[in-house]
Structures are given as structure tokens and as C-alpha cells.
Input
Amino acid sequence: MKWIIDPVHSSVEFAILHMAIAKTRGRFKQMRGEIETNNDGNLQAVNLVIEAESIDTGDFRRDAHLTSPDFLDAADYPTLTFQSTRVDGLGNGRYLVRGDVTIRDRTRPIVLEVVTTSPVQDAGGGRRAGARAEAQISRTEWGIDWNYPLPSGGLLVGDTVWFTIDVEAVASMSTTAR
Output
């Protein structure tokens, strides 16, 4: 069964350590993608595309720096993508989803911890389901290594980026017509 991610009811949020003392948080406001499940509703595949320019940390100067060549280089690499390569069911709607993340034309494997919800019928008669995925990456593994040394030691920007992805997906019309 094919599910289309509803970008209005979905989010990609992240956090990164700032000045080695506190996490700074942000989100990407534009995303799209598809999810595949088998006939029993078990997760089979995930494809997600995130628009780099849609980054929002609440500070337009920081957002401009994050979309610059120092970080995401959104002009040359407008999207970040995730394509699953393997899904392992853990029971009770929980999965380990292995896949490839491409950032700045560099692809590396990651593992998402995913928890899904049971489908429900929406007000229009369609079917919707939800999922939450969490992961962390080392930004330097994607060549995103800009930093600034602090006078007291340490670096301005941490290397680990924590992601939380909340998705609401709608069953594809071609799927629900069966």
C-alpha cells in the first residue's frame, strides 16, 4: 500500500549543540515523500525529500548561514533525501529503518528508530496513519565541517545533529480504490 506524506501535518526537527553548552533547535518547513506498507500494514519502505532552503531556526541570519556553502549549500544542493534500504520490524508498530541520507551530494547510511500508529479514517473518508522517527548523525561525515574555535576551548557548533521526524501520511487514492 502506498502512502503520501502530508507536509502540512508533518515535521522534520533537529537539534545541535551550540557553544558546547546548550542545544539549538530548528526545523525544515518543506518536505515530501512516500511510504510503502504491505497488506498487513507493516512498514516496507520510506522515501523522504526535504527542501534545504526551508530551514527555520528562528533567526534569519543563522538560517542564511546554514543554507550557505559553509553548511547545506542550498543553491547547489537544494534537497536532503532519505531512501530506505531495509526495514526490520520490532513488533508493536516499532521498526529499525536503515537507509541512505544524501546531503550535499554525499550519501551515507543511517538507522532510524520508527514508531507507527494504526490507520484511521479521516473526515473525507480517506485513510491516514502516522509515524515518528528519530536518529542522530555526525554532520562532518557529510562534509559539513564549518566551525569556529571558542576562546574558552571547544567549538561553536557541535558535530552531532539529532533529528525527529513526525509524519502523517494519506493512503494513495489508487490504493484506497482497490
